[in-house]
Amino acid sequence: MSTSKHIDKICCIVIAATLLLTILFMNAGKFGIQAVSATVGYASRLFNTSTVHTIDIVMDDWDSFIENCTDEQYTNCTVIIDGEAFRNVALRAKGNTSLSAVESYGNNRYSFKIEFDHYDNTVTYHGLDKLCLNNIIQDNTYMKDYLTYRLMHEFGADAPLCSYTYITVNGDDWGLYLAVEGVEESFLQRNYGNDYGELYKPDSMNMGGGRGNGREFDMEGFEPPEHLGRNTPGEPPDHTMGSSDVSLIYTDDEFDSYPNIFDNAKTNVTDSDKARLIESIQRLNNNEDITDVVNIDEVIRYFVIHNFVLNFDSYTGSMIHNYYLYEENGQLSMIPWDYNLAFGGFESQTDATALVNYPIDTPISGGTIDSRPMLAWIFSNEEYTNLYHQYFTEFISSCFDSGDFVNMINSTEELIAPYVEQDPTKFCTYEEFETGVSTLKNFCLLRAQSISGQLDGTIPSTSEGQAQDSSSLIDAGGIEISDMGDMGDMGDMRNMDHDHAPADMPQDRPSEKPNHSFGR
After folding, report:
1. Is 21 exposed, middle or buried (0-12, 13-18, 19+ CB in 10 A)?
2. How does DSSP assign 296-309, residue by residue?
């Protein structure tokens, strides 16, 4: 009888404990318990940067898909990532002006986007919903996007994860691509948790956007404005090709005044979300309550790396696009995107010395700092300018003075070189790749040297100062910017012959890559 009583008590305790655990699990957020992110899996798998990954695209009618790539329509396929198959996923071509450029040059090496959840919202790649496969166009180094995203991430700015992947199609070699985490729901959950804010990709509708963001832009006959590549002191903002809303300039409180932001929202925004964003933009333009309106640490870190790599196909250039705007509770931050034309590639600039010494305190091409409110606040307040300089000093010290940058670029070259050599669709020759990497390394080392001088005052840090005193500038006359790839460089189209692709992939892969830390 007494044993039965004890058993009854034990059962009651177990039931009560189970009920309590169930309540805690269902209401974890209310009790401050954070759920484990579902995106941890993909971050440590496909985006492990110590190896070149493999993706085999399996599709019944690949030739028909390629023929209609410019329509940007999704097609059902299976993708096998590092030997793991994911069926019933969607694939389409993607790109900005590069989409039409590939078509214009008769090249089939398009960039692609994979939507794992397009047909079935339960399908993901270990939590990843969208994956971009960049074709590395106009980049003989194969590294411009990769290095920029890695530098952003290591220096504490939110950036998409990336890694190299060798693509095959139905088992046949296609080429070495850069796999990039789509800046969509999985990215937002990974960086900001399940209760994330709103995401926008501001872009003028009449130029360089891709799939709704300027897909009517005509690449044929396009020439960058003559002023591009060097900002003249006092240069008026009307040199820009974008509209005022993509510059984040406040016009009024009407939603219709910001079509290039709201029409390109990546989250489901409500009227209250729109009103909150406009209020933040107004306060940003008025330089009011900056600590509430801007994620100061995040944005300064973003601009330190962005201004180092000199990407004028961006918010700081005339096109004013290729960035994501993130807003949460009225606070704004920037997310990087599309750096294949960084390091002077966008404007086909030939003056390497001007680019190496490009002034960090007047980093706009085709306008004034005041025409870019998301940057202007840094230079309108001495405290923020000093913080910007402090972070630049930290970046140069932790990345270049330490030797980490050279180690990174050397190990990356060693990792991908065998794949570049036998890439059957590459836009450049292997020799051009080798020259490009060497040029990129030298360019960055000289750029770091110039910025160190700009920070300690031995080199002017503004356009006006450099125009008045050019004697102290770092000489980069031995560098040819075009060796790294630029807008006019489509490489050797002879490499498009798939029938002569190498039969075997190299099997020996480096097992480790140095863990670079650039300080936060």
Report:
1. exposed
2. HHHHHHHHHHHHHH
Mean pLDDT, rounded, of the chain? 84
* Interatomic CA distance for residues 311 and 340, integer angstroms: 8
Model confidence at 8: pLDDT above 70: no
Secondary structure E strands in 95-153: 111-115, 130-134
Burial of residue 324, with CB atoms counted within 10 A of its CB: 0-12 exposed, 13-18 middle, 19 or more buried = buried
DSSP state of 399: I
Which residue is listed with tokens 């250039």? 317
Alpha-carbon distance of 199 to 182, in angstroms, equals 12
**Domain positions in the chain:** 40-187
DSSP state of 265: B
β-pair partners for 213? none
Q: Write down the pTM of the prediction.
A: 0.84
User: Rounded CA gap, 420 and 177, in Å?
Assistant: 10
Cα angle 435-440-442, degrees, rounded to a multiple of 5: 95
The CB-side HSE value for 321 (13 A sphere, CA atoms) comes to 25
Interacting residues of 464 by C-beta distance below 8 A, sequence separation 6+? 233, 362
b/e code 217-249 from CB counts within 10 Å (16+ = b): bebeeeebeeebbbbeeebebebbbbbbbbbbb
Q: In the structure encoding, which two tokens stand for residue 494, read together? A: 């002879």
Asked if 225 and 239 count as a contact pair (C-beta separation under 8 A), the reply is yes
Choose among 347, 313, 319: nearest CA to 223: 347
Torsion angle (degrees, nearest 10) of CA 448, 454, 458, 462: 140
Cβ count within 10 A of residue 52: 18
pLDDT tens digit sequence for 413-457: 999 999 999 999 999 999 999 999 999 999 999 999 999 999 999
111-115 vs 53-58, strand pairing mode:
unpaired
Pair 115, 129: CB distance under 8 Å: yes
Q: Quick one: CA dihedral 134, 136, 138, 139, positive or negative?
A: positive
The region, left, alpha or beta by phi > 0 then psi within -120 to 50, assigned to residue 264 is alpha
Characterize the bridge pairing of strands 53-58 and 162-169: parallel
How far is Cα 266 from Cα 211, in angstroms, rounded to an integer? 13
Closest-CA residue to 361 (of 464, 441, 219): 464
Helix (H) or strand (E) holding 278: helix 271-285
